[in-house]
């Protein structure tokens, strides 16, 4: 970019010199004709550079599809592994009482085996809060007495779950806070609180500060709450909420039933002393996996599926050792172009069953769809009906529930513009401006 600007400036200087009169108004110097020709050549070269920069680079980002988070896929591309799609391949498989979607197809690179957790539409209610919020020991005691479970930033009451999402900005750790004031009674941000001046009058309740410390609470510098400190303050007739600062906090609560959520919100606000005149609970639905991925073993599911395909004669040449190695690296999320499992060269030069993005020099891409990335010319058997049924059985282009239908192959779907393309385009701007000379 710097060289381009320097070259352009030199062209401009030569151009200006060539435009100076030299014996005739209509005569142009040969230098001007040469510079004009060089400018055209230079502009053409920059255009070519821009076009080249738009081509996909070796690594242009990662493709992401929400269904990849609860899917696992293996490409059986190891030499010696054969397949036969003549035997019937079930669209779903029951494994340990759970239903899993199964798709098997012959792509241009080999046989693909894709396993997915069915998606379901979850109905639920949501509540969002942003404002002052702090959990004192009294508040925690009240909530636990009502059957609440407190786990860090997560609060649970029955089917209602609350998460503290946003906190204050004043501090990140206790080291960001310090004390100030004549008697050291003010807790604030280090570097600022030392400048605070207060009357040098020692109040009896200041002795309660010996039971606590100044630190970072919910992103705000505050005297840390604890039962002894709060009890001491009350004994002196001081409201703990007036001493314990609470920074702005965001809370998100959700539950399957709106009424259950509303009751939980009321309990939470009452226990923490927050006066909220109007509680707005919103009802909506969202699509997600039918099972919690943390409670379903992807390795076990992959092993059962591959063993079944071998037993049916769909796959041949896949040894028990291969199945074990594939299962060992199978995790929910290992699916799609970037993360599927296959027989690939490792970074140390050997071959093994590993996710593609962990192989040597992977070509990672970003593209629209992220579904069937290697359709090939083979056939596949899938089900577009409800999970657990054979309704909607089709043959042809792979599709699966919960993912966008692929509209083109990978090569047609590369949409990302990475690298210096935009910068190169900007460098064209001064060359495209033609200055009129009077």
UniProtKB/TrEMBL annotation:
Transmembrane segments: 41-61
InterPro entries, sorted: CGP_CTERM, Heavy_Cys, Heavy_Cys_CGP
Record has Transmembrane as a keyword: yes
Keywords, sorted A to Z: Membrane, Transmembrane, Transmembrane helix
Keyword Membrane: yes
Bias type Polar residues, positions: 378-387
Stretch list, region Disordered: 378-410
Name this polypeptide is given: Uncharacterized protein
Organism: Thermococcus gammatolerans (strain DSM 15229 / JCM 11827 / EJ3)
């Amino acid at each position: 970019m710097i060289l381009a600007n320097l070259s352009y400036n030199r062209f401009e200087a030569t151009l200006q010199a060539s435009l100076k009169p030299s014996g005739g108004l209509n005569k142009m110097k040969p230098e001007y004709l040469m510079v004009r020709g060089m400018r055209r050549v230079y502009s053409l070269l920059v255009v070519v550079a821009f076009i080249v920069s738009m081509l996909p680079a070796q690594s242009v980002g990662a493709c992401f599809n929400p269904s990849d988070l609860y899917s696992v896929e293996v490409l059986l591309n190891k030499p010696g592994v054969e397949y036969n799609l003549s035997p019937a391949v079930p669209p779903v498989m029951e494994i340990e009482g759970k239903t899993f979607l199964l798709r098997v197809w012959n792509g241009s690179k080999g046989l693909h085996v894709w396993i997915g957790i069915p998606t379901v539409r979850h109905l639920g209610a949501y509540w969002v809060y942003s404002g002052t919020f702090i959990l004192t020991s009294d508040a925690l005691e009240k909530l636990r007495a009502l059957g609440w479970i407190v786990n860090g930033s997560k609060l649970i009451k029955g089917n209602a779950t609350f998460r503290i999402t946003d906190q204050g900005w004043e501090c990140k750790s206790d080291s960001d806070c310090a004390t100030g004031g004549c008697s050291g009674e003010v807790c604030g941000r280090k570097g600022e609180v030392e400048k605070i001046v207060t009357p040098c009058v020692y109040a009896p309740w200041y002795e309660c500060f010996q039971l606590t410390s100044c630190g970072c609470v919910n992103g705000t510098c505050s005297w840390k709450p604890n039962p002894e400190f709060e009890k001491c303050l009350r004994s002196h007739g001081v409201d703990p909420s007036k001493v314990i600062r609470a920074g702005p906090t965001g809370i998100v609560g959700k539950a399957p039933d709106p009424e259950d959520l509303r009751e939980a919100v009321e309990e939470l606000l009452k226990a923490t002393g927050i006066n909220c005149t109007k509680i707005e609970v919103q009802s909506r639905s969202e699509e997600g996996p039918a099972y919690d991925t943390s409670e379903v073993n992807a390795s076990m599911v992959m092993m059962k599926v591959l063993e079944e395909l071998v037993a049916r004669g769909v796959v041949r040449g896949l040894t028990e050792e291969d199945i074990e190695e594939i299962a060992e690296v199978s995790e929910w999320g290992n699916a799609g172009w970037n993360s599927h499992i296959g027989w690939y060269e490792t970074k140390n030069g050997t071959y093994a069953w590993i996710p593609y993005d962990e192989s040597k020099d992977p070509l990672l891409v970003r593209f629209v769809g992220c579904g069937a990335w290697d359709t090939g010319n083979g056939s596949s058997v899938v089900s577009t009906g409800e999970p657990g049924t054979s309704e909607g059985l089709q043959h042809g282009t792979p599709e699966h529930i919960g993912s966008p239908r692929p509209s083109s192959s990978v090569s047609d779907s590369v949409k990302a513009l990475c690298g210096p393309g935009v910068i190169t385009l900007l460098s064209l701007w001064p060359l495209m401006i033609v200055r009129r000379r009077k």
